[in-house]
Design a protein that fits this description.
- The protein has two domains: 3-182, HUPs (Rossmann fold, 3-Layer(aba) Sandwich), CATH 3.40.50; 207-327, 3-Layer(aba) Sandwich (Rossmann fold).
- The protein is 26% helix and 27% strand.
- The protein has seven helices and 17 strands.
- It has a seven-stranded parallel β-sheet with strand order 7-11-6-1-4-5-12, with helices on both faces.
- The longest helix is centred in the N-terminal third of the chain and has 17 residues, at 17-33.
Length: 329
């Protein structure tokens, strides 16, 4: 079987957390196939400095496409680069992260190569010489086992599902030259508006404190901010669709079928009833803690731990206990 290629996402010449997950997943799959994993890093001037960080996760070769024109992401140009690399290589499988960027890039690449794409993959393995993909269907109510009769197999991996496992590899860095003449120029970069802080994107965070309509008013959100801060710098805020539609929180924090799909290690659902739209976006979380005054709330059916009570009493006490425990570490 051919090699496995992993697209390593970066921002401002720094690897995103999902890059290690995708490269590690590629290395694990390649080992099952008796093959090798390679990584592809695309970006502007200086991006090659981040390449060596991929060696630790099993990339035998790291292909770098470094151009001033790629300083800021534009889907057409990056897709052209990725498709060119895939055409020139003997790959059985190509993996992308199912992040905001990955969801824009991977279907573009699939269209350029006229290949099918499996999205939001939660498991990969080799059975009988074929790559078997597991992905959620019907808003996460069931999981489908999929095989693709095309080469290479293209798949995007749900963030925070695949654990990044360190396995040192040669990681030989190879600069790749790609002709941009054939790339579409239907769009151009205008400006980047940052969120304003250094916290992780909700889709990549290992801990999420999510609030719903039970918070009653946007003025009560500092209650969740206190719990988030008590949990540490890797915790972020999330929100239900009802909260975002009401204008209480930004859309970037929305978790659910029309928001972001998340799989954190720890998910707090506070004042969230558990509508199917919300469950579709967070039910693959490793540990779910629900706090709701309604004992019949649907969220308790998927929660690992549940507290039936007034969140305005429970959350401050929970934050205080967590601060105390972390203070003793």
């Amino acid at each position: 079987m051919g090699k496995v290629l992993a697209f390593a996402e970066q921002r401002n010449e720094k690897l995103r957390g999902v890059a290690s997950e995708v490269v590690s997943a590629a290395a694990t799959l390649a080992a099952q196939m008796g093959s090798e994993a390679e990584a592809l890093l695309v970006g502007g001037s200086g991006v090659s400095q981040a390449a060596t960080g991929l060696r630790a996760y099993g990339a035998v070769r790291i292909i770098v496409a470094e151009y001033a024109e790629l300083q800021h992401y534009t889907g057409e140009r990056v897709a052209h680069v990725v498709a060119s690399v895939i055409r020139d290589g003997s790959y059985s499988c190509v993996l992308f992260p199912a992040t905001a960027l990955g969801k824009d890039l991977s279907p573009r690449v699939a269209a350029l190569l006229d290949l099918p794409l499996a999205t939001e993959v939660t498991e990969l393995r080799v059975e009988g010489g074929r790559i078997v993909i597991v992905r959620p269907v019907f808003a996460g109510k069931a999981y489908a086992r999929v095989t693709i009769d095309a080469t290479p197999v293209l798949a995007s991996l749900r963030p925070s599902v695949f654990t990044a496992v360190e396995r040192a590899a040669a990681g030989v860095v190879e600069q790749r030259q790609v002709d941009f003449a054939a790339a579409s120029s239907a769009s151009r970069f205008v400006e980047l508006r940052a969120a304003g802080d250094d916290r992780l994107d909700v889709a990549e965070a290992p801990i999420i404190v999510s609030g719903g309509r039970g918070m009653r008013d946007p003025a009560n959100w500092p209650l969740l901010e206190e719990l988030r801060d008590a949990l540490g710098p890797h915790a972020v805020l999330g929100a239900s669709r009802a909260v975002v539609d009401a204008g209480w929180r930004p859309h970037a924090e929305q978790v659910g079928q029309t928001g972001k799909t998340v799989s954190p290690r720890l998910y707090f659902a506070i004042g969230v009833s558990g509508a199917i739209q919300h469950l579709a976006g967070m039910r693959t979380s490793h540990i779910i803690v629900a706090i709701n005054k309604d004992p019949e709330a649907p969220i308790f059916k998927v929660a690992d731990y549940g507290i039936v009570g007034d969140l305005f009493e429970v959350v401050p006490r929970l934050a205080a206990e967590i601060r105390a425990l972390r203070g003793r570490d």
